[in-house]
Write a structure and sequence with these properties.
Elements lengths: L4 H7 L4 E3 L2 H4 L6 E4 L5 H17 L1 H9 L16 H20 L4 E5 L14 H5 L19 H7 L4 H21 L14 H19 L9 E2 L8 E2 L12 E2 L26 E7 L9 E8 L4 E11 L9 H7 E7 L13 E7 L1 H6 L9 E11 L10 E2 L6 E5 L5 E3 L7
Parallel strand pairs: 2-3, 2-6
Antiparallel strand pairs: 1-3, 4-5, 7-12, 8-11, 8-14, 9-10, 9-12, 12-13, 14-15
Helix pairs in contact: 3-4, 3-5, 5-9, 8-9
């Protein structure tokens, strides 16, 4: 499938930043930077580079547009611990190919930091709006900014590997793809056709690289990728160290300290109005600053995306998700499960483990309030495939899962039973 030259030559450029040694010095060579730091001269140089890829090797240009969604050559990996490693390999190989075709060994991808307020008018980095638009994206001019709260990322950075990757995928990854950006990005087979995809995934990769700094020695299990379009056989171990892949990021310090005082709120793509409430009674004395609600075997639909919003509140306080004061006082966390593509994507499991952070809300409760009977209310809703934009209506639906448990800092699990369920 081909896209128009006016889009293909321009949109891909939005992902990348060319760091010429003359302009930036060797310190910036192969350093992925925030797209909002890219200047017009860099973008012009990148436009020339991507044109070379398209003209000299159009088949490879088409491959990188489609590999994320073409089962015979991929497919991409979601819903398991190879999610981050596979996408890291994809980005690194794409980047190397651009370096080779351009002849510039300092060519680097950029990242889109959605924990910073959007610089454009429609909720995106201004470069993607003014110079490299994609007409299928949602207009998010009315979305709260930043799209993702820094406190959410700070909390994820504290988690161990499995909960970190589950939280990152089942939160900002899925939500930004499906509900925030939408359009081409909303569907797995077409996601990489909007090349903001690469900036989105570069930010996820940056967060993983930062997490690795803070959690040395914690790695996913090794596995081999059978993606036929990659330039060589690749396994998880091949991509664990980004220095071996010959790139770095402009910000590599773990982002864990600055966001503690930020007000908790649902991200822009989570719709707080509407939904069906499931209530879990909880002993408030068992909670701590890192408590998680873990829901196992949450179904992944091929017909809709699903979201769940958790509120931690006294049993005596009615759950009122349409009340701004209730949301402000008791919002605790969320999950977002991106719909899967029907049929061919066997590497996309039919169920997911999702986590909802309770610890940040608990740590904000005055000590005097940590008594009496408390409950966790999870408000679940579905976003249909045809929904567009952050104002899209959602439909309430019963929360479906295999097992619910409370997980404390030491990984001790306490099974929870929903009120009214046998």
């Amino acid at each position: 499938m081909k896209i128009r030259a006016s889009v293909s030559a321009v949109v891909v450029v939005a992902l990348l930043v060319l760091h010429s040694p003359a302009a930036f010095g060797q310190a910036h060579c192969r350093e992925r930077r925030n797209v909002d730091s890219v200047n017009p001269a860099d973008i012009k140089a990148l436009s020339d580079a991507i044109q070379k890829l398209k003209q000299k090797n159009p088949d490879r240009f088409e491959f990188w547009k489609n590999v994320h969604g073409r089962p015979k050559e991929g497919p991409c990996i979601h819903g398991e611990e190879q999610f981050l490693p596979w996408h890291r390999a994809m980005l690194a190989y794409f980047e190397e190919e651009l370096r080779a075709v351009s002849g510039n060994q300092c060519l680097s991808l950029v990242y889109w930091d959605w924990t910073k307020p959007a610089t454009g008018k429609k909720g995106y980095p201004i470069a993607f709006e003014n110079d490299f638009p994609n007409s299928t994206r949602n207009d998010n001019s009315g979305a709260a900014q930043p799209a993702v709260s820094p406190s959410e990322i700070a909390d994820l950075m504290k988690l161990q590997w499995d909960r970190f990757t589950e939280g990152l995928e089942g939160g900002p990854h899925d939500g930004m793809h499906s509900a925030y950006v939408g359009g081409d990005m909303r569907r797995v087979p077409t996601a990489a056709k909007d090349f903001i995809f690469y900036a989105h995934h570069a930010n996820l990769d940056r967060l993983w690289a930062q997490w690795q700094v803070a959690h040395s020695g914690q790695n996913p299990a090794n596995a081999k990728f059978d993606t036929r379009g990659f330039p060589k056989p690749t396994s998880t171990e091949d991509v664990l160290d980004i220095s071996r892949l010959r790139y770095t990021y402009d910000v590599m310090r773990p982002a864990v300290a600055a966001a503690e005082a930020v007000e908790l709120r649902p991200p822009a793509y989570v719709k707080v109005h509407g939904g069906t409430v499931t209530t879990f009674p909880v002993d408030i004395a068992t909670l701590d600053s890192r408590s998680l609600l873990v829901l196992e075997k949450v179904p992944v639909s091929s017909e809709f995306s699903e979201q769940g919003i958790a509120y931690l509140h006294p049993e005596s306080v009615a759950c009122k998700p349409d009340d701004e004061s209730f949301v402000r006082d008791y919002y605790a966390g969320y999950f977002f499960v991106w719909e899967r593509t029907p049929g061919a994507h066997s590497s996309h499991p039919s169920t997911r483990t999702v986590i909802l952070d309770l610890g940040s809300r608990f740590s904000r409760l005055p000590a005097a309030q940590r008594k009496g009977k408390w409950v966790i209310s999870v408000v679940a809703s579905r976003v249909p495939s045809q929904a567009v934009g952050i104002s899209a209506q959602v439909a309430g639906a019963p929360l479906t899962y295999g097992n619910a448990m409370l997980e404390s800092t030491n990984r001790k699990h306490t099974n929870l039973k929903a009120r009214g369920k046998p």
